[in-house]
């Protein structure tokens, strides 16, 4: 029988990651999101941290004072293990808590929330809790975390492109920028990375697509710089 936990690597081995085999698997969107963070922040929260990929990636890019908030004990177990194994206990504090009841104030929030509704849940429990919005909506998620964003704070996030209409109202009080992720020629846009700023005039702007793959399937230079070379790229206005 295969080990229920896998041992994987991000950023060409700069980060090692224990993940549940039958669960949500960290994808390129998380790496891209962390690589597009720009600015200086005193306090950071990773909401729905899972096994800690976004927190670890932000710490790898030099950020500190990160609180990794995850509700489910099985994910919290690996979150703690991954922080220790990557020698990032000085940068990341794990917290097993529910985002809907947690109260904090942060300069920067980063999140890769569950995308799917409860119409066709996965039969695998660990995958289901990571991917399914169970009894709440994507708007509920962002309203819960944005109330914990400082007045001049910034939120970076990954969402389904189809969810943007539902989120326009949630982001109506500030400046929201969206970068659609183009995974290949002729393929539909499914996901995007966003940046919401409290301290700018209200607007909702869709920027140029970020292309991940060349026609032959290889990564573009920009994608390769973030995903493999651990570079940061500031594509925001």
Q: How would you characterize this protein structure?
A:
The strands form two sheets. Strands 3, 4, 5, 6, 7, 8, 9, 10 and 11 form a nine-stranded mixed sheet that branches. A two-stranded antiparallel ribbon has the order 1-2. The mean pLDDT is 92. Helices cover 24% and strands 27% of the residues. It has a single domain (5-227), classed as 3-Layer(aba) Sandwich (Rossmann fold). Helix 1 (28-35) runs parallel beside helix 2 (53-60). The protein is globular and about 50 Å long. The chain is of the alpha/beta class and 237 residues long. It contains seven helices and eleven strands.
Which features characterize this protein?
11 strands, 24% helix, globular
- Sheet bearing the most strands, described? 9 strands, mixed
CATH topology heading:
Rossmann fold
CATH architecture: 3-Layer(aba) Sandwich
CATH class: Alpha Beta
Uncertain residue segments: none
The H-level CATH homologous superfamily, spelled out, is Vaccinia Virus protein VP39
Tell the overall outline. Answer: globular
Distance between the termini: 50 Å
Number of folding domains? Answer: 1
Number of distinct beta strands:
11
Instruction: Calculate Rg over CA atoms.
Output: 17 Å
Mean pLDDT: 92
The percent of residues in helical segments reads 10-25%
- State the helix count: 7
Find the structural class using helix and strand composition: alpha/beta
Beta-strand content bin: 25-35%
Secondary-structure element order, N to C:
EEHEHEHEEHHEHEEEEH
